[in-house]
Design a protein that fits this description.
This protein is an alpha+beta fold. The chain contains three helices and six strands; from the N terminus they run αβββαβαββ.
Length: about 140
């Protein structure tokens, strides 16, 4: 057996993701929901977006970002509400999302998300990583 540290990991990441995906699907009885993305625009210019990934009957919000000058103006709320509506339309059981203490834990709480996990001092001392969920 030979173990090797890869300095460029693109091919290995693709190989491992494919193998793990195949393994996970072999243990699931439900086809995953189809992933989707949402953008929010002002004057035909995208100012933020949200990306999801379907896993079984749940959707995971993998990315949510709003341009600095457009935060606290309802853009993030509009993205999240649109994602929840679309997830329901697709038959999702719920949504999961991760965030850091310096990002948006209060935002998700305000929208009815429940914190069910956290890691203190991550990604560095004084910060916290949170995992939130919301049943649909």
């Amino acid at each position: 057996m030979e173990v090797q540290i890869e300095t460029t990991y693109g091919a290995t990441k693709k190989f491992v993701a494919a193998g793990l995906g195949d393994f996970n699907r072999s243990h699931q009885t439900v086809s995953p929901l189809k992933s989707f993305a949402v953008t929010v625009k002002e004057k035909d210019v995208a100012r933020g977006g949200l990306v999801t990934e379907g896993v079984g009957t749940w959707m995971i919000v993998t990315l949510l970002w709003v341009e600095d000058g457009y935060r606290a103006r309802g853009f993030g709320s509009s993205l999240l509400q649109a994602a929840e509506t679309e997830a329901r339309r697709r038959g999702a059981t719920g949504l999961l999302v991760d965030t850091y203490s310096f990002q948006a834990p209060a935002f998700y709480k305000k929208h009815g998300y429940l914190a069910y996990g956290q890691v203190d001092d991550f990604p560095e001392p004084g910060m916290t990583w949170f995992r939130f969920k919301k049943a649909l």
